[in-house]
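QUALITY CONTROL LOG
STEP: pairwise intake check
CHECKER ROLE: data steward
CRITERIA: each record must contain a sequence immediately followed by its structure tokens, with no blank fields

ENTRY 1 OF 2
RESULT FIELD BELOW
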Amino acid sequence: MTLRKWKSGGRFEEVASYSRAKRIGPFVWIAGTTAIEPSGRIHAPGDVGAQTRYILSRINEALGEVGAEMRHVGRVRAYLTDLSQAGAFAQAHGEVFKGIDPVLTAVQAGLTQPGLVVEIDVDAVIHDQNGKINGF
């Protein structure tokens, strides 16, 4: 069975003892991801659409680090500071996941820093184009 963990170098990963991405067999989990750039700056403060696109690109990178792809994502959870901005989130999400169509939950929540307006986590299962999981 495959066991892989990946840490992105985020400031809380070591303190809180967690991984950005974890894979056990064909199952993959990506931790809640925000629009904080490697420099520590917030990407596009207050812009739901731009932050969503940026976060999903970071999630794509994390998936790749453990051998998965966006097409393997089965569930997306999004936390928005203001649900009245859900349209901008939905537009950006739809651009990235067109044809993949994962299940989606969006809720309103407070985030850790002013300017952060979206946090996203995903669950994935590595499978072939017919949905077959190797060994199952």
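ENTRY 2 OF 2
RESULT FIELD BELOW
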Amino acid sequence: MRLKGKVVLITASTRGIGLACAVRCAKEGAVVYMAARNMERAEARAKELNEQGYTVKTVFNDASDKDSYRTMVEEVIRQEGRIDVLVNNFGTSNPKKDLDIKSTEYEEFIGTLDMNLASVFLPVQAVIPHMAKQGGGSIINISSIGGLRPDISQIAYGTSKAAINYMTKLIAVQAARDNIRCNAVLPGMTATDAVKDNLSDDFREFFLKHTPIRRMGEPEEIAAAVVYFASDDAAYTTGQIMDVSGGFGMPTPVYGDMIERTDRR
């Protein structure tokens, strides 16, 4: 019950990592608001959790409607009077169009940056005055290991996540005087529907060859890191960029080939 009494707002939380965060935060005693565009799906998820004895509510948010970030925050404040934890989980990319520097259209590049950066900047800008007034809070940005490790594709997605990592540090510095902490969690390859639908088996196998913990992460494992940053256990922790990727990219660049040869013996 590390989050007992806290109000937690999570964007894009009806499936995948966002849903895992909602479930884990609810189990830790929080009042959880699932922010989503598909309210029918959100309400169904909330009903399931409420029937298990947790306190989960819904609020509308559409990433394509930038004003909805402000109204989302205002609605939770209207109902609860406070927001203790904000989890910015939304992120988007089109792997079929978000390619390398030679092949990606500028409109695709700038559109992805606009969506992904707005999904952090706008809700944080909206929530900070309320957190400052109540005496503090915790902001957690779900970034990506792709923001640390340059890739041969998805130039827009990687650039946007790198920017979110830096923005996390800026927010941490600029909001600290109001007792507001800001940290980021960087998932590696995680077993979500989006990964299963968009990445080929060959790519997943290649990626995991370079991951010392040789499996995909589970959404619940990302949620565990989120709960840490949300809780008072992290009261003196801010501006941190936590890699939760099974060690992807940490070893020598020839690690994958070396492991493959070892496995053949």
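INTAKE CHECK: passed for both entries
DESCRIPTIVE NOTE, ENTRY 2: Strands lie at 7-11, 31-36, 55-60, 85-88, 137-142, 180-187, 241-244.
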